[in-house]
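Run serine-type D-Ala-D-Ala carboxypeptidase through structure prediction, thanks.
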Amino acid sequence: MKKKQKKKKSHVPIRLNILFFIVFVMFSALILRLGVVQIVYGEDYTKEVERTENLTVNTPVPRGKMFDRYGRTVVDNTPLRTITYTRMKGSKSEERLELAKELAKLMDMPTDKLTERDKKDFWIELNPDKAKKKITKKEWDAFEAKKLSDKDIYNLQLERVTAADLNQFTPADLEVLAIKRKMDGGYAMTPQIIKNKDVTPEEYARISENLDRLPGVDTTTDWERNYTYGDMFTSVLGRVTNADEGLPREQLDYYLVRDYNRNDRVGKSYIEQQYEDVLHGTKAQIKNVTDKDGNILEQVYLSKGERGKDLILTIDMELQKRVEQIIEEELKVAKSKGGTQFLDRAFVVMMDPRNGEILSMAGKQLVTNEQGQLQVSDYALGTMTSSYQAGSAVKGATVLTGFQTGVIQPGSKLIDEPIRIKGTPVKKSYKTMGEINDYYALARSSNVYMFRIAMEIAGAKYVPGAPLYIPSKAYDTMRYYFSQFGLGVPTGIDLPNESVGFKGAETKVPGLLLDLSIGQYDTYTPLQLAQYVSTIANGGYRIKPQIVKEVRDPVSKPGEIGKVVKSMEPVVLNRIDMSTEYIKRVQEGFRAVMSDSEGTATNVFGTAPYQPAGKTGTAQTFYDGPDEAKRKSGPKGTLPPTYNLTLVGYAPYDNPEVAFSVVVPWVSDDNNRINKVIGRRALDAYFELKKEAVKIEADPTIVPESTDNP
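Sure, done. The structure for serine-type D-Ala-D-Ala carboxypeptidase is below.
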């Protein structure tokens, strides 16, 4: 028994020793592991614990392109080597200054945009002790007594920084200032462009190689708009803000709630502005992971983004180019002949009356440069932003108003002889025509026929030499029917800032209502006149003019166009409240204008093979243009008398595919044919280009004559 007990006791200490040894090994391993975690990985885990995820940053992408109706590139993007800086949260001015000094060693920075205020701010930052000495003891005492604020002290320092102080800056100092100014202008966690113009390959490479010691700096690719056709049509295409402008101040809230950054570039006028939502694209999204001090620990790309969608315009840029050349040539010819001292502009709008697509929207203006030389500038916007008295071109609307109100019928005959109203100058046509009907009234452009329609609409009984009472409602009646064609109301074009023209005051002066009937009272834009004649051409449908035909997905391969995202369907704004018989009657009169032996445009259009129809117009008016000296050159300092020459039309008359308007204001001689010549040449260009397109379609090996087409 004793031996067994002793043996049993001898085994207990061995097991305990084994157990203690195992525990010792485990604790040793644990201690070793904790040491490794703390010593080797401690910093990494500390950052992991302290890191926070910042809000997602949206990085802009290139804008969508624009093409004309035949796929020619109109607006593109040119890539630019770019240096950017992203300011971290908690970034200090001193740190940015040191970074700017490093960047200045690696790149050249333009300094031409630095202001005196920029330099003064920089001087104060570099010379804090000297800046303090510019404040007197009395002023410091006032500051201590809280009678002067920090801002007051700083403003005093700014005032006392002298030209001699600023002259201490070296060119290198100014480069540092220019770089830091860009850095300071950025927003936290948002890339700010430091330089994107004329960045050389060497600069780009040097900075790329040193990014590890340039916190927040990056090398990337930016873009700028490239206009394939130069300045042609750019006023309508619109402009984009630059990186310095950023979001327009007046629309800041509008864009910020749509996830734009303050320094984003956006369309600021016309097509670029109107279609901003389509053109700006989907931004690349980057999630910045930062520590508690705002230093970026990691960047996670959530999406690469996609450049803006492309626009297919309704414009035929080759036709646009031809029409602009025609206007420029005819303006120069007219000016060379003399007698046109007030003439300085002309406009042409061409559109498809079947669907409202604008084919050409051209305007040219003569301007005198600083050297006193006459130059021609683009004024395409004037087709929709400026308005003029259109003269007899509106007589089609007057005749149709007479039909609809029942004061005349197709074939109604009226006497064309001078109208004599007491207290009003004699009102007459360019010649006495005797008894004529509506057809000949349009073909020969009778004023008196239109006067009699207006008097009948007003219910005014005309007695030669006696007063004539005109109720104001007569103006409302005339304008109501005119508006059905688009005269005096918005056309609905998909562009901002359209003018609707000006209405003359409603008055009981009888002669003014008569003037309204022949287009010499209210004013209309060239675009309104094109919509008006299109409504007559297509049988009475007022169609919304359209400048954009399609929206398409972007593609990266040159020469290709993406699939259609949205197609702009024709929009009928209204069907004029008139019988089809009435419209056909006016169409016959318009055809006679250009083909009848006594038609007012037959001398220019009579030989046209494409069977045009239309209406000429001459409005007696006054020069009220931008030249103040010319405005005072009339009798006794009054506005000098001039003529507005207009023309509206379409072709072919039996199946119209193109409608147009021509407006040439402030011509000194009403016998000038510039409106007719421009109209004829513009239509010739349209049908010539149509023939060329048919030939190319039939034989793809034919190369177009123009070298402007990509």
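The two ends are 113 Å apart (CA to CA).
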